[in-house]
Each structure stands twice: as C-alpha cells, then as structure tokens.
Amino acid sequence: MFNSLHITVNAVHKSPNYSLKEVVMKSLSILVVLVVAMLSWNCSGTKPIQTASPGEIPEWFVNIPQDPNHLYATGSGTSQDLQLAMNKAITSGRAEIARQTEVRLLNMQKQFGEEIGMTESAELRTMYAEATKTVVSTVLHGSKVVQQKPVNDDNLWRTYVLVEYPIGAANQAFLQQIKQHEEAYTLFRASETFKELEAEVEKFEQYKKEQFDKLVESQPQ
C-alpha cells in the first residue's frame, strides 16, 4: 500500500500538467485516503463491542422455557460494571413478566365482561383496573431470577437472565384484590371465569404445600 502511494505522489509531483496548488490538493487527497485506509485496516480485526458470539448466548435465552404453571421471560443488559449490567437485565426480564401478567388479566376482564356485563359499569371497570395495577406491581417485584450468565465482551459486560413467576401466585393476588370489593365479588363469583380462577388458586395452594412437604422431607433428621 505504502509503495503504491509513494509512486502515485512522485507521479503527481513530476507531472508538468499540475500547478503547485493542484499538487498540494492532490497530495492532501492522497493523504486522507491513506489515513482512512489505515484506520479501516486497524479496525478490521477488532471485535464489535456489543456483540456476543452465538456460542456465548445461553440456550434458555434463545428458546424460552414453556410451562403451564409459570411465566418466563428473558432479559439482557450491558455495562462496564458487572452489577449494573445484571440489574439492567433483571429489570428488563421482570418488565416482560409484568407485561405478560397484564395481558392475562386483560383477557380475563374480557371474559368477565361477556358473562356479567362488566363493561357497562364504570365503577367495576375502575376497580378492575386498580386490581390489575396492584397485581402487576406485585409480580414486578416478586419474580425470581432462575438463570443468569455474564459474558465479558471487550471492555463491556453483557448479562443474560431468565426470570420466572408462578401463574398461580398472580391469580391468587388478583383474587384477593377482588374479595376486597364486596359488589365486585358478589357479581364475579357467579361467573364461570371466577370459578376457574378459584380452581387455579386452589391448585396453586396445593402445589405450594407439596413443595413445602418435599423441602421438609429433604432436611436431615
């Protein structure tokens, strides 16, 4: 590259067809090309800062687990500080869990509306919106990180996390909110949707009891 440039510059300088100004401008143009070429050559072997190779991305991040009893979500975050990267990833994962919960509750609201005509009552709609907000907040802070993987990427940390939350816990929190409003509770409990909700909560209570019994049995005597 440098030999070719030297030859080109000499050719420009020796040519009788160029004035001094043109020679200077041509030389500057060649110099700029050289600088750009050198920068491109130096950067070509540099790994992009925010890129992780496929082998570094965990399987559970690409193929999120599916479970009828749990909500799962992934999150990732980058920072020069490992803890900050972890916090960003957890926040992202929990936000997705909260979004999934909100979607489930909105679908349930539609079912209630079809059965008891809830959409006709502004008071019931307000109550439902407040209950949904409370449950989503509970989920946001109560979800659990079950998998995590930090990856060092040049001068940055990229962290992957998998967040989990029991669907039964969200149903239980929502049922508790409904029971605090007597009018809503009286209307809702007559619907099939409410009966299904109660059944799911009872199932979750049984699941918690079984998990507790297993924990007790695993303890040394």
List keywords for this structure.
221 residues; alpha+beta; 3-stranded antiparallel sheet; 8 helices; 3 strands; disordered N terminus
Structural summary, described in words:
- This protein is an alpha+beta fold.
- The protein is 65% helix and 14% strand.
- It contains eight helices and three strands.
- It has helices at 2-14, 20-43, 59-62, 82-116, 122-142, 167-179, 182-188, 192-218; strands spanning 70-79, 144-153, 156-166.
- Helix 1 packs antiparallel against helix 2 (20-43), helix 4 packs antiparallel against helix 5 (122-142) and helix 6 crosses helix 8 (192-218).
- It is globular, with a radius of gyration of 31 Å.
Uncertain residue ranges: 2-9, 11-15, 18-50
> How many helices?
8
Helix content estimate: 55-70%
Mean pLDDT: 78
Strand content: 5-15%
| Rg over CA atoms | 31 Å
Biggest sheet, in brief?
3 strands, antiparallel
Please give the alpha-carbon distance between the first and last residues: 78 Å
SSE series: HHHEHHEEHHH
Specify the structural class. alpha+beta
How many individual β-strands?
3
Judging from the principal axes of the Cα atoms, what is the shape?
Answer: globular
Provide the spatial order of strands within the biggest beta sheet.
Answer: 1-3-2
